[in-house]
């Protein structure tokens, strides 16, 4: 969905004259070229280890260092197989591999491209680890695989199936290699687009991989009526969706048209791609794709003014709150009217003579009838505004009490009460909603305490603490909220989480036991989204084994906000699980909801990115496997935290974040 | 194999009078008692979290703190199931569990015993993690499981099989729990011995687990003719083998005899256990069972005098060397005689008239015929002694050159040459065998440079470096050595390795990428032992693709001591793999070998303990799975190191010790 330009490269299978190749490509406007590192005429001398580097290929003096550094992707010899079954070949190819890698390092290439041939990649990975560990220069590894394994296809030809194994096979080559490389984020994949395209689920799985580039062979193009090379509609879609996920495009193979035409076609294709509606979320999220942030702790830390600024700009959230408040005000008025009619008819029957007294008391009664709305955690006042608007719309008389613990926000709030809302009944109370006592009690309490995973900013604890502020039978907005998860594959998010903070081994462990707020792009859902925890307000309270509701020391329902849930998913396609995507939805009141669950996402609401919940050890899952995940919401007097564990068959992750050791929400 | 005493405890299912129970047990000579923590008459109040501790059970004033601290194992309530499918039961039992644990902590019990009921142990483990993380007091957890799962047995009854699943099931409960607890070494297992005993392989697997105790129900005893309780022969064997692996014995259940008789029987049983031959290795290893040591680096570091002392005491090794040297001397003399006969006959034919000259030269010839034996890495001289002895035995004339790089050892060596060997031809050369030049060259070189895993003290590099010291066609003793591995299950060794050095997360990573020298006791072999790397001396040298032997700059065969090997095992029984046991054997000369491979172990040779090679992530393996392990021996100009990776199905460990980052042998 990124709004970037398309970046295209040109591959030369042989390059007898480097300077000519580069000139041609740049002249045609390609951004880079892909070149073999070894000159095909070169025959190597045989020496185990410490061979002579530099003699086996072209001199590096032909191009300027800048060109080598930015324009050239070096391709290692196709035939290299350091995982050969033959010990002799294995050792020989290992030595050649290291020779070529050393040469790439010497040239300072930005990326080295290599080919995988099978799932046997242990020795390749081992040598690349050594190479990368000993490299100062941050070389990227581009791992080239076909999308379809012809070998498997031929082996399977007689079988009457959907060739899924032939589509799976190269994906296994890549993910096995990536796994052996520790899911290192410097390792990307380059997929060759085949003439026959795979099933949608295979394509979608690839879109969850860190695709650095796609190879588009010139054979995929056919000439249109005017003689220009074009792609089929299906291929167009694949190319566009890959480029939307940040892939670059490498044109490769024999030219059947002027090389510039291919590039011009790709540019046009990208420009005329299906128009994405002007979604505020998409433009808001631009630049934040797959960028990890630590969740806020608005209870423990006071938000700064910049954060308020951002959140108050949400075009949808406060609309929804306003509608919900209006609905609640309407319902309360209706209820009161019914009660008052009941009262009056009762009064008439019981005590007709008191009529004058009741009528004379009318004015004070009208005053009493103002509906008390408490905004708990009012911040700089957006929900006060929404409440006043709702009162105007429903023609209700409201008394608004704005409670806020952040002193800076209280200053703004008080100023607004004096100036903007001076002819309204708005009072500001500075304090923690869990510790104050206000009377009269509220008919409605309104709060916005939800995090990206629903309860993860301690809304349940805050609202339970403030339960004494609400009249019996009063309304809480929100009324209910739920958290959701879906198991996902995303090597990119996992690798980013692992090294997110200045890294030592200890910090890496912590990073993988933490929720991360992130606009996820480069990921693939392994199952359906499922509900985790639900919270209602006002809370029903715990019952004892005789069914009696228990009360706390304040005489309010005793609540228990600890939770645990076990969820199960059946795997539909071989994959690797790296963690969960986490979401929430929330019933404000009536039928007004806010949601960041993809299928019900409140259109245009930008206040929340989802969360990524990593697992410490990525798990391989096979079609038919069951993923079992258990989440706990734990608490002690000082903090709330989550723990989680995932099991697949006999495999299990460690228990994450035990005793809240890596991430916690302070009370 | 340990020579300790048997330690027995007595379990009380209910204990109405603590002091009386303890007195009775101590009076009968039991070492400890097992008691329920909760009094059966106690009915708990229901309060989520933070319940009142102390009211629900007996007062802790009844016993002295010393008794609580050393004599009492507290048993948690049997029925506790914090992993119940019912959320209400789950939460309730979790709260009860924590209440009982808090009480155990308060009493300072040395061990807490709990029961497992199924493989669902996530929540139990989670709560125990929290308990142990927040405990200053080092409580041990004794995890009680039956050996046979009656539930599975009944479910399987109709099936015509060996009930292996009913024997597997409780082992799964335990290992799943242990896995969830991170294989923590504070967690042990207590197995209840059943009336019907399991197949041998099941028993052997249990012997690889950290068994803290076995429960021997009194129902297993029958009364002998004299009316004393005794066990069947099969049960005797089980009890003895468990106690040999450090298990304590808990007698439990209704008494059908005087309680003292059970204990007296167990003592007798232990004393009269099958006599273990007086193996020097067993007495040498006593106290070293499962104790991890870092391998020596005799090349990089000089050995100290204590180490020489220990090694020189080996009653077998130098005998074997002496025999091998004698054999080599005999063979050389025979060869020379044949050559000389050939020469003489040749001489006769070609040049009969020169006979006098040859005879006249006899004395100097005799001198020349002294066989030059170089002892490379002579240390304080044991191999010099072996050589001189061998010369005496074979009536050979030898010239011994002792080469040693350790200055301290050279002092001792020189002193011995002057005093002890003053009438023998022994010269001492101080220097590194890879860098010195001596003439005449040696007929025989003798060295003892092997580590517990064969080449892991750099014998190949040292002997290749010294290859120039050996005559063409000369003899190297040793002639060949091989390393071996077997995949093993050993939670104890794994946990010990992980926390071996002052531990931070980084060090734990390193600890699991290191070879450990250890006399392994509490482990179970998952497969057959297999060969890893082999080395021959003198080395044959590398051939090029035309079959020509390549030479190095000295004109000696170019050697390549890098190796890689992939090994496979088919798993015979569900298990958990924690690493490998590593061994070596060595052909000295002729048919004289030294070996620490269990099946061919040189009897009485004490110089080497095996190695434990851990894997970072223990792997669950199922019957029928294939374990694939690849080992690399890598080198650069400064060091040699091993890397390894293990794959089982779709699971794989990370690549261990990449680029030698955690363990290395310096050249």
TrEMBL record, chains A, B:
The keyword Protein biosynthesis does not apply. It comes from the Eukaryota. The keyword Transcription does not apply. Keywords: Methyltransferase, S-adenosyl-L-methionine, Transferase. Residues 480-664 form the PRMT5 oligomerisation domain. Residues 284-477 form the PRMT5 arginine-N-methyltransferase domain. S-adenosyl-L-methionine binds at residues 308, 317-318, 404, 432-433. It holds the Pfam family PRMT5_C. GO terms for molecular function: protein-arginine N-methyltransferase activity. The active site is at 448 (proton donor/acceptor), 457 (proton donor/acceptor). The record marks 311 as: Critical for specifying symmetric addition of methyl groups. One of its GO terms (biological process) is methylation. GO terms for cellular component: cytosol; nucleus. Residues 29-271 form the PRMT5 TIM barrel domain. Gene3D superfamilies: Divalent-metal-dependent TIM barrel enzymes, Hnrnp arginine n-methyltransferase1, Vaccinia Virus protein VP39. Belongs to the class I-like SAM-binding methyltransferase superfamily. This is Protein arginine N-methyltransferase.
